[in-house]
Amino acid sequence: MARHLLYFTAEDHHLYRSSGGKLELEAKFPGDDLGVTAFREHLRGRKGALFAVVADLAGEDFHEEQVPVLRGSDREAVVQRRLAQRYRDTRLAAALSLGRVTGPQRRNERLLLASFTNTQQFTPWLEALEEADARLTGVYSVPLLAPALAARLGARGRALVVTANRAGLRQCFVENGRLRFARLERTVELVPHALAAFVRSETLRLTQYLQTLRALPRDGAPLEAFVVAPRGERAIFEQALVSDARVVFQTIDGAQAEQAIGLRQVPDGAAAEALYLHLAARKAPREQFASSGDRRRYLVWQMQRAVLTAGALGFAACALYAGTRWFEGSDLRERAAAQSNEARVAAERYGRITAAFPVTETSTENLRATVLEFQSIARRNVAPEPSFVHVSRVLAQFPQMEIDSVNWSIGRPEDRRDRKPPAQPVKPDQGGEAVVLEISGRVNATQRNDYRGITAQVQSFAAALESSGYALVRTHLPFDITSEGTLTGDIGGSDSGEAPRFTIVLTQRLP
Amino acid sequence: MNLTAEELKKLAAPLLVAVALLAAGAALIWSTGQSLAGSKRQLAAAETERKRNTERLARIAEEQREVSEKLDIYKQLRQANILGEERRLEWADAITRIRTQRELLDLSYRVDRQRMLKSVPGKPDNIDFLASKMNVQLALLHEEDLLRFLADLRGSGNAYYVVKSCSLARTGQAATGTTITPRLRANCEIDLITALDRGAKK
């Protein structure tokens, strides 16, 4: 966003517009009431525009003070009190920190109090900005901007920055990047040689004055003075500015200085103040003279920008993160496409090869599944015929046995729990399905009360059946000879004639 | 700095824009996250397919041998009408024919509704193995009649016959001499198994 800069001198005021490294002269106003009126007129339709005032006045006071080291509102209160003690009108006053000093008893902060001897001259101009709803970014003086220029010109430690401005010859003493003192000496129209000689004499005077103030050590190294010569006059200045034991002159051409601060275009007629104006627009220092009340609209605008910037930064961060994920996803998609391609190539090769297979009526998978399933069913399928044949063969050896029923089934022996508990101990089942063969019958040609004989015959028959892979599960006798059961007898009683019945259960494990 | 209501109002629009930007950023992250998850799934599926196809290709020689081996059995199953829809009418015809041929005294049967059989793991989806339970009651003169009946039933085809149980018991009826009296009664439970291959060519 373009910034408007009001170059405020003791006579005329020039309004510049700074945008993209270019400085353009917008208007020129006389310093009287007519000028203020013209300025008000000029501000019409510039609501919300950013304005800064850069004062280049001789009546600027600098005073060094020390305050206790404090922070926050305490420091602010002390600083405001010192400013009020020093200046009658503190509307345009600033306190520049010069760093801390450790005294014998406590640590202090050195402050450079600065203000204008006549702040009233600014009032109508600031009010005009207020009325026009313009945003005041700050009220600066050329000395406040000098440290930034000194840094760009390569000044280190103690240095003087000397420029020939429209308002006069500006000399600023900068120490370790901080302003210590400044003065403005009015100049009349001088030829370059005369101006150069004037610069030299004034610089030497100021150096002597600073030594008097003890701002410079009396027997220290020579002070470096960075003199910005008007465009194309460097050679003339270098001739005049001869260094000696007190001052070492560094002459910089105006064009070179503009390049050093990034100023690409200067309006015709502008002198070295263009350098300060550009710095006020692009690299404004934190210290300035306007109160927060005067800058309120600008501060709110800064907050708006900060909120928007935070949102934009948040979005950018999200977009960046999303971008990395998108690239990751893109990489995965490429890999997936490559894998799919490989799968397709393999499938096509498989299809070409299987096309040469014997003609089948179904797919290879279905063919395999069907055959495997039926092979599995066939393996588990057991016909009852071999069991019946086995019983028949054994029965031929026991003519006294008469079979009533034969139950053949596939299952688990323990599934037959509806039956009576076994008279004989059951052999432990070894798990899995089995052929279960249950044979019920009668023992003929043996007396019913011949328990021993019946038991022997049934057990003998069961033992004969327990062959060819069959295992005896239980034998159920017509009477209970176990310790858990009840054994009854009727010796000498009449025989009913009914043959005693038995049941034998066998199993044959399936493969 | 304390802000007035008017100044707060001035901050509302930038705040809304900032919130909208942050929401858009979050939505962007969410959408790329979804896209990334989708890509991961896509890659996993593609890798699985590639692996399966490559392995299948590597096993092709074995498969060729397997096809040659199994094709004969498959053809036999098809010729025996074990593959395809159930043929209940053919079953009824076969039982009637057996009864007549073997001169069985009494034969009754009941075929229950078809059910799905549990199959080997990895079975293709387009093939099902099905079974129908049949209960058969026979009146017999001799126990060998049962064995002949079972053999004839197996030979009749149209299903794969799996005998689950068979009981044989005396009827206890005395022979009269004038009529043929059954001496034995058999009761059998038989599974009639068929396979429905929907991938087979008609």
Gyration radius over CA of chain B: 35 Å
Distance between the termini of chain A: 92 Å
* Separate helix tally of chain A: 12
Question: Mean pLDDT of chain B, rounded to whole units?
Answer: 90
Biggest sheet of chain A: strands side by side, in what order? 3-2-1-4-8
Quaternary status of these chains? heterodimer
Beta-strand percentage of chain A?
25-35%
Largest interface: A-B, 78 and 84 residues
Number of helices of chain B: 4
> What number of domains of chain A?
2
Q: Could you name the ranges of chain B where pLDDT drops below 50 across 5 or more consecutive residues? A: none
Topology (elements, then pairings):
The complex is a heterodimer of chains A (511) and B (202).
Chain A: E1 3-8, E2 12-19, E3 22-30, H1 33-43, E4 50-55, E5 60-68, H2 72-86, E6 93-102, E7 107-116, H3 123-131, E8 135-141, H4 142-153, E9 158-164, E10 169-175, E11 178-185, H5 192-212, E12 223-229, H6 234-240, E13 247-253, H7 254-261, H8 273-282, H9 296-354, H10 364-380, H11 385-395, E14 401-411, E15 434-443, H12 451-465, E16 471-476, E17 501-509
Parallel strand pairs in A: 1-4, 4-8, 9-12, 12-13
Antiparallel strand pairs in A: 1-2, 2-3, 5-7, 6-7, 9-10, 10-11, 14-15, 15-17, 16-17
Helix pairs in contact in A: 1-3, 4-8, 5-6
Chain B: H1 5-58, H2 60-79, H3 88-102, E1 106-111, E2 115-116, E3 127-140, H4 144-155, E4 160-170, E5 184-197
Antiparallel strand pairs in B: 1-3, 2-3, 3-5, 4-5
Helix pairs in contact in B: 3-4
